[in-house]
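Hi there, hope your week has been kind to you so far. Please have a think about how the structure follows from the sequence. I've dropped the whole record in just underneath, so have a look:

_____
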Amino acid sequence: MHPVLIEFGSFPLGTYGLLLAVAFFAGTALAKRQGLLDGLSPAAITDLAIAMLISALLGSKLLMVAVDLISGVPAREVFSLGTLRAGGAIHGGIIAATVVFFWKLRKGQGLPLRITGDALVPGVALGQAIGRLGCFSAGCCYGTESHAPWAATFTDPLARAFSGTPLGIPLHPVQLYNSLANLLVMAILLLARPKRTFRGQIFALYFMVEGVGRVVTETWRGDVDRGTGWLGWAWLSTGRLTGLAFALLGLGLWLAWSHSKETK
């Protein structure tokens, strides 16, 4: 694929970075439209989205570095230029953005917690779907070897330099699997929105379906160890661990909020 889309003299325009920008603007636009359904301020949604984006970028890098160090990757590789250019661990970004989301709303942003969450998460899923296309372009988050007709073979040396992507070997395009899964998550959330029976339902539903989706797509991930073998269980990789945590968080929010007096 093409980690660098085009070069302007000595300045390379990275495909991942460009698609990340597209993901942010598309996700924010969708969040503002969803927010208007509940009378939320588009400007306040944009301010919140910017804060969450910054925290997501930092959180994804931090989780990637932490998992690499725990997995025994040499420190010189973990803190190399390739690591700085890699996208990071997406669930680290979601965790950090969620913490900032609760923190910002507790400070008083004029945005009610539950309906703001309902407005944001379809845009988050859309942003993830577009961002995964950036991962596919960069070669990071690559899959296991595959001989399926739709297998992807990476050939760009920059993909190996930045992300350690195997070259010349057909791999599961797991980045595209994740992108399709995120589009499905977005569709589920948008279809559920008109049938919402309590505030925060869409927010809780996002964590449940995103978590389950990650547990499934983790089957075809092939990039480094990423914490495989947590608690002595080879099946429980970092992605599955965070996916299960997300699903449990969503279930807990659903049960707590569905019995509260704050309805739609």
Observations:
- The chain is about 65% helix and 5% strand.
